Amino acid sequence: QLPPAGNINFVIPESSFLSKVHKFMVTCESSIGTGESTIRISRPGPISSITVLSPNGKETLTIGSIYEIRWAQVGVDSVDIYLEIWAYDDGRQLCEKGPCAHYLIENNVVVPQDVYGHRKYSWSVGEVKGEIYSFPSRDYFKIRIVKSGDVPYLSEVSDSSDNYFSIVSRP
After folding, report:
1. Other CB atoms closer than 10 Å to residue 72's CB: what's the count?
2. What percent of the chain has pLDDT over 70?
């Protein structure tokens, strides 16, 4: 039986849009007969994503030095950049399910991409929103980049360093 007049929605997987040629066949059979219908196919908006490229683990950064945080983003106008603390130097987890501390480095960051599609932000290591955060040297930090305005640990459009990096005091 044919559904009542109106819209019928179905999902076409995003992977189907990777090629430029699309073939779809729609067959409607009814004892009532045939009729005319318009089929409109629209591509969903761009899928939003962020990928942290560096620091991505194993780096050692020195407080006060300048480090270029690098990432790629798609479908996102601006980002917020956070420093996450994951554990004490002895490896004890601060929080059971993820970082327990997020420190805002900068919000509403809008920078052009380079020829490789990457973006960068020059960070004075240890500076969080205009202040120098005083902490002992630690080995368990990550950078988290989120779509501007999102809550860091709830954002669906975010990424963090793949592994931990260290921050040490100047000698």
Report:
1. 16
2. 61
The Cα 96–Cα 167 span in angstroms is: 22
Environment class of 111 (CB within 10 Å of its CB; exposed 0-12, middle 13-18, buried 19+): middle
pTM: 0.70
Strands 127-128 and 131-132: antiparallel
Asked if residue 14 lies in contact with residue 49, where contact means CB atoms within 8 angstroms, the answer is no
**β-strands 49-54, 118-124 pairing:** unpaired
pLDDT tens-digit readout, 75-112: 999 999 999 888 765 556 666 666 667 889 999 999 99
Type of residue numbered 33 = G
**47 CB-near residues (< 8 Å, 6+ apart):** 14, 74, 75
Q: Is 50 within 8 Å of 146 (Cβ atoms)?
A: yes
Amino acid at 167: I
Looking at the chain, how many residues does it have?
A: 171
Amino acid at 31: S
CA 111, 117, 122, 125: dihedral to nearest 10 degrees? 130
Hey, what are 74's tokens? 């798609």
